[in-house]
Amino acid sequence: xxxxxxxxxxxxxxxxxxxxxxxxxxxxxxxxxxxxxxxxxxxxxxxxxxxxxxxxxxxxxxxxxxxxxxxxxxxxxxxxxxxxxxxxxxxxxxxxxxxxxxxxxxxxxxxxxxxxxxxxxxxxxxxxxxxxxxxxxxxxxxxxxxxxxxxxxxxxxxxxxxxxxxxxxxxxxxxxxxxxxxxxxxxxxxxxxxxxxxxxxxxxxxx
Length: 207
Known about the structure:
By secondary structure, this protein is of the alpha/beta class. Helices cover 35% and strands 23% of the residues. Strand 6 and strand 7 form a beta hairpin. The relative contact order is 0.19.
């Protein structure tokens, strides 16, 4: 089931630049990825085989989730919504979430991760951004979320803390400032991430 909700605008004056939850994930990984994505003349990116495989795997997991219990999330019962598009004019943020679980007393965002690697801080910030959208749309507090690790068939709980919320809001401000001022951010210090980056040729200062 695909569901789409939009929070009511609550801004006076001009709305902020609409960013995506993916921007929040990319920003701590390397802020230049987000910068180039918005400032380059051509925003469209080619769809790679890996991206298509990831999309198909997400769809397969969603189909399986419909038949599973909610035990992996520590719940006896709840209502699941799949492929949920959420946006907020107030936050200037939008995204598409793999699953939202409505349970007794809480609403829980769930993001599927098709990777053997560990859950990184950028993935936790991404889930926090989803949590901000979900609680604004549902008008219910979000205290936790889950990242479902597809290869391990395991759900990892992530507590949505005030510090994580604050970081996401700060990142949104910094991204908009960099774009508005056309100020190139510092590149990631982890140069191994640059090897397969689609924007590597635009960063001569890191080579």
